[in-house]
From TrEMBL:
Name this polypeptide is given: DUF4177 domain-containing protein
Region of interest: Disordered: 1-29
Biased composition (Polar residues): 1-10
Length: 65
C-alpha cells in the first residue's frame, strides 16, 4: 500500500501551562501562537480521568528530510 506523503504527520505533546497552584490554568495564548507559527495545529487533548487536561496534542505535516 503506497503512502501519500501529505497524509503523514508528526506529533507533539505539550502540558498546558498552569499557575503556581498547579490547579489553575494559565492563559496559553502566547504558547499556542508560537506553535501555530511553527506549523503546529491542535489535534486534541489527553484528559485526566477525574477531569482537567493533562496534555495538548499537536500535529503538522511531516517534513521532508
Amino acid at each position: 500500500m503506497a503512502t501519500d506523503r501529505s497524509s503523514q504527520w508528526e506529533y507533539k505533546t505539550v502540558r498546558p501551562p498552569t499557575e503556581a497552584t498547579q490547579k489553575e490554568a494559565a492563559d496559553p495564548t502566547k504558547q499556542l501562537n508560537e506553535l501555530g507559527k511553527a506549523g503546529w495545529e491542535l489535534a486534541g487533548t489527553i484528559d485526566y480521568t477525574g477531569g482537567g487536561t493533562k496534555y495538548l496534542v499537536f500535529k503538522r505535516p511531516q517534513s521532508m528530510e
